[in-house]
Design goal:
Elements: H1 8-14, H2 16-20, H3 26-34, H4 38-54, H5 61-85, H6 87-90, H7 108-129, H8 132-153, H9 160-164, H10 171-180, H11 185-216, H12 221-244, H13 247-250, H14 256-278, H15 292-319
Length: about 325
């Protein structure tokens, strides 16, 4: 929204029949859906829908559905291109080795054509259905994820997820722009919340998946700076995030329902981050508790962001 030995033109030529051939069974359909990273897309869609709901004004229902569909397709397209580019390292990482491309169930060129086609379609439909500002922001989010994060940052710097996290922060801005035709301070606040949520969320994951990243040479923070520094950064970014989540109420585009939810959800996130920070390690930097605090923090962070944005939508619907 990588690959060191990519040959896209030969891949595309070799895979042309696969692009045209219909799926043979439900397992093949599931593989094509898996390329879109549906779990990631679900959270992207949720934050995009909330951006659309809290924006001043409204769209006709059919156009609202079209806008949400375009956000989902754009995010899925970026995920598919990411899987195409990362197929070499995915094949060597335990948690990604069974993905459709490294497992040989989908040809790389077919996956690339699929991703590019969905990306172009999502931007064009968004522009025609809503406005070209929303379409432009959607295009920017896809390009940022594919070109900036996947192809440039991911394999070069331990700050990959910090800078690259901007790609996942665009959906509420897209939803807002789809309704209003412009971008103002309010959606940028929502952008900032997701931007600063991403590092503690992803670094919690990387704490218990660091062996995979180390094996393939991806410079995630636990690999380059060690688990102790990563745990400290999880806590620091959480401390920065929590005051930001109160800005919607302080700026007047959310009320007490959202503010109460932000405080309660944030208190639990802080508790989880402190548990990660305090997790004891052996001399090799491994968690003595089996990385349980990091796993709990990662799982909670997913619920946290979703519930926070749902609270914003509920607040707007009830309090106006």
């Amino acid at each position: 929204m990588q690959g060191l030995d990519c040959h896209p033109m030969s891949d595309l030529t070799a895979a042309t029949p696969d692009v045209l051939a219909p799926p043979q069974d439900l397992s093949e359909v599931r593989d094509w859906v898996t390329l879109l990273k549906p779990r990631v897309v679900s959270l992207v869609v949720l934050t995009g829908v909330v951006g659309l709901l809290v924006a001043p004004g409204s769209l006709p229902p059919a156009l609202s559905i079209a806008a949400v569909l375009c956000i989902a397709l754009g995010a899925g397209a970026a995920g598919a291109i990411n899987m195409w580019y990362d197929r070499d390292i995915d094949a060597r990482m335990k948690r990604t080795a069974t993905r459709p491309i490294p497992a040989g169930r989908i040809m790389p060129g077919a996956a690339l054509s699929y991703g590019v086609g969905l990306a172009v379609a999502s931007v064009l439909i968004m522009g025609l259905a809503t406005n070209w500002v929303a379409a432009g922001v959607l295009a920017l989010s896809i390009a940022f994820y594919v070109l900036v994060y996947t192809m440039w940052l991911k394999r070069r710097t331990s700050q990959n997820i910090v800078i690259g996290g901007a790609a996942g922060a665009f959906p509420p801005v897209i939803g807002w722009a789809a309704v209003t035709g412009h971008v103002t301070l309010e959606p940028l606040v929502l952008f900032a919340i997701i931007f600063f949520w991403t590092p503690p969320h992803f670094w919690a994951l990387s704490l218990f998946a660091h062996a995979d990243y180390e094996r393939v040479g991806v410079p995630m923070l636990p690999v380059t700076h060690g688990a102790k520094e990563t745990r400290r950064q999880v806590l620091l970014y959480t401390l920065v995030l929590l005051p930001l989540t109160l800005l919607p109420s302080l700026l007047g585009f959310a009320g007490l329902i959202y503010a109460a939810a932000a405080v309660l959800l944030g208190a639990e996130f802080l508790r989880q981050a402190i548990a990660v920070f305090r997790d004891r390690q052996d001399e090799a930097g491994r968690s003595l508790s089996g990385d349980l605090p990091a796993k709990k923090c990662f799982r909670y962070s997913l619920s946290y962001l979703g519930l926070l944005f749902i609270a914003l939508a509920v607040d707007r619907m009830i309090l106006g």
